């Protein structure tokens, strides 16, 4: 049955679905990934190592892009949100010439959670991409079990096993014309980051990841960055993740300690403005006087309030706390990186973070990787003590999905309020 194996790249079977918790035997959770944070699977590539727990039965060995199947095979796949929107099952597979030469015609029956959704005949070999509508009622149980069955099949003379299709992937998806809401879009993005995190942990050992982070820190690209002509000392990958958080949370206030040149506060203002959050505000504090460039920007004038002084000055903390009380608030800490100062900031700013929002402790890589050996206890030490030893820390959890791009300067520092 292998005489056309060289042609499988262009005639593979793909059952396309999206990422989700494994069905059947599960791998142990990867280090750094809580079991509850395992990604959902909306699109399944059957030869992907990350997908092996989603192959329930009926799959044989293949290549990096496909697998042979038996006459009956099944996968487990999650339904994408929202569950009440129109949903389609996309299959991508190859009807092998070996099978058609032997049986001439096959009928494929497809079931989702035990209910039939399609029956289709194939009398010619080649690549197929059928799409079948799945009634929302069938997806109330998720992950869903997608089962495929052929009425005729072939035999592999070398092994004696039944053989059917050559499959690449399975996908559950909404039609392109479906406009999903903010909550569903947020959940899809979050699952994408969780999937990326699993891929990264599978493909790169932790020591290699740390090596990459150290190298990235040693190449001072981040020390020579400007945002709209204002210097910004941030990791650009962390800036990307921050704009994702701002999109998800739609905060009324962003509180920042450590203004420096004002580049990051201006970036937060630009992000808020781009999302149409015209009533949201940025509150930023620093012990140093602010250069004139950032405050001259129109978006700074519209969105940003600057407080000069220590971020732990009781008077400044009281002013900020009064403004954000009862409002949806995101806090990021990036001032003095000594352990004591970061702990002091955690004590006074943690109560300002609204439920479901984030307290981001920046530069935990300094003493967490560490990228600066000999720097002493710093942000990472403060985070660990806050989470493990203090009552206020029990309200927060580390969200490792925010580290999906590997080269974050805030490993373990993306803290979500429960």
Can you put this structure into words, describing what you see?
This protein has two domains: 5-197, Jelly Rolls (Sandwich); 205-417, Rossmann fold, CATH 3.40.50. The protein contains ten helices and 23 strands. It has helices at 97-103, 182-203, 206-218, 236-249, 263-274, 298-303, 314-324, 339-349, 365-368, 379-389, and strands at residues 13-16, 18-19, 41-45, 55-62, 67-77, 87-95, 106-112, 115-122, 126-128, 131-134, 144-150, 154-155, 162-163, 166-173, 226-227, 230-231, 253-257, 281-286, 304-308, 329-333, 358-361, 396-398, 414-417. The strands form four sheets. Strands 1, 2, 3, 4, 5, 6, 7, 8, 9, 11 and 14 form an eleven-stranded antiparallel beta sheet that branches. Helix 4 packs across helix 5 and helix 8 (339-349) packs across helix 10. The radius of gyration is 26 Å and the shape is elongated. It starts with 12 loop residues before the first strand and ends with a strand.
Number of domains: 2
Question: β content, as a range?
Answer: 25-35%
Mean pLDDT: 87
What name does the CATH topology of the largest domain carry?
A: Rossmann fold
CATH architecture of the largest domain: 3-Layer(aba) Sandwich
CATH class of the largest domain: Alpha Beta
Which structural class best describes the helix and strand composition? alpha+beta
Helix content: 25-40%
Main beta-sheet strand count, sense and barrel state: 11 strands, antiparallel
How many helices? The count is: 10
The CATH superfamily of the largest domain turns out to be Vaccinia Virus protein VP39
């Amino acid at each position: 049955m292998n005489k056309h194996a060289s042609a499988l790249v262009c005639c593979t079977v793909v059952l396309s679905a999206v990422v989700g918790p494994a069905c059947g035997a599960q791998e142990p959770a990867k280090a750094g990934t809580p079991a509850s944070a395992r990604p959902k699977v909306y699109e399944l590539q059957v030869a992907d190592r990350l997908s092996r727990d989603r192959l329930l039965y009926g799959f044989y060995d293949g290549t990096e892009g496909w697998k042979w199947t038996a006459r009956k095979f099944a996968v487990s796949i999650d339904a994408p949100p929202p569950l009440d929107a129109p949903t389609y099952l996309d299959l991508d597979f190859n009807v092998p010439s070996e099978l058609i030469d032997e049986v001439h015609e096959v009928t494929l029956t497809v079931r989702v959670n035990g209910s039939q959704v399609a029956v289709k005949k194939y009398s010619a070999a080649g690549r197929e991409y059928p799409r079948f509508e799945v009634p929302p009622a069938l997806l109330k149980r998720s992950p869903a079990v997608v089962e495929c069955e052929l009425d005729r099949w072939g035999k592999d003379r070398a092994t004696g096993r039944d053989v059917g299709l050559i499959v690449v992937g399975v996908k559950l998806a909404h039609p392109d014309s479906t406009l999903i809401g903010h909550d569903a879009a947020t959940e899809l993005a979050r699952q994408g980051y969780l999937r990326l995190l699993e891929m990264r942990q599978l493909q790169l050992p932790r020591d290699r990841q740390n090596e990459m982070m150290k190298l990235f820190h040693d190449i001072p690209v981040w020390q020579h960055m400007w945002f709209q002509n204002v210097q910004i000392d941030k990791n650009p990958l962390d800036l990307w993740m921050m704009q994702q958080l701002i999109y998800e949370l739609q905060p009324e206030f962003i509180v920042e300690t450590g203004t420096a040149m004002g580049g990051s506060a201006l970036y937060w203002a630009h992000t808020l403005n781009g999302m149409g959050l015209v009533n949201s505000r940025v509150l930023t504090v620093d012990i140093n006087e602010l250069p004139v460039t950032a405050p001259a920007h129109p978006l700074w004038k519209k969105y940003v309030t600057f407080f000069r002084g220590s971020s732990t000055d009781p008077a400044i903390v009281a002013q900020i706390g009064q403004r954000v009380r009862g409002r949806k608030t995101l806090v990021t800490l990036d001032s003095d990186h000594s352990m004591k100062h970061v702990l002091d900031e955690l004590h006074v700013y943690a109560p300002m973070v609204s439920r479901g929002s984030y307290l981001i402790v920046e530069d935990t890589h300094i003493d967490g990787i560490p990228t600066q050996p000999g720097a002493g206890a710093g942000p990472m030490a403060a985070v660990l003590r806050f989470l493990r030893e203090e009552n206020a820390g029990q309200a927060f959890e580390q969200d490792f999905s925010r580290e999906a791009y590997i080269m974050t300067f805030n490993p373990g520092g993306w803290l979500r309020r429960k």
